[in-house]
Automatic annotation (TrEMBL):
Biased composition range(s): Polar residues: 104-122
Species classification: Eukaryota, Sar, Alveolata, Ciliophora, Intramacronucleata
Protein name as catalogued: Uncharacterized protein
Organism for this UniProt entry: Euplotes harpa
Residues covered by region (Disordered): 1-24, 42-68, 103-122
Compositionally biased tracts (Basic and acidic residues): 42-54
Length: 122
């Protein structure tokens, strides 16, 4: 019990020492400490924002970049030279071509259906 009291008095003595120091510190010094602390926090926050912005930029590439990367991977897989890449790009299926093929096949089906139903025997 005595040792605990000694420990407590030692700790409380340190605390009161700090309080005395803070009270004797003039207002200008206290403001300086607060300002430095604020600047330090702001710098840390700015660095964090910068890092997260870089990460977000890397994690969500725009579609054009994504398409280009796909093409690079395909070319590397099949051992295509970079010079041939543009030629390869031309051969890639484009959504518009798919729609044209789909519409023309739909028209063929309609034509066959009309031909079949116009037949008097059915």
């Amino acid at each position: 019990r005595i040792s605990n009291n000694k420990m407590f008095s030692r700790v409380s003595g340190q605390i009161s020492e700090k309080n005395d120091k803070a009270s004797t510190m003039n207002m200008k010094e206290q403001l300086e400490i607060l300002k430095n602390d604020r600047l330090h926090r702001q710098k840390a926050y700015d660095e964090h924002q910068h890092e997260s912005a870089k990460w977000n930029k890397n994690s969500t590439p725009n579609l054009e970049d994504n398409r280009r990367n796909e093409l690079d991977v395909i070319c590397e897989e099949y051992g295509t030279k970079i010079e041939e890449k543009e030629e390869f790009k031309e051969k890639m299926v484009k959504p518009k071509d798919v729609m044209k093929d789909y519409k023309s096949s739909q028209n063929d089906v309609k034509a066959q259906f009309n031909k079949y139903t116009s037949n008097k025997n059915c």
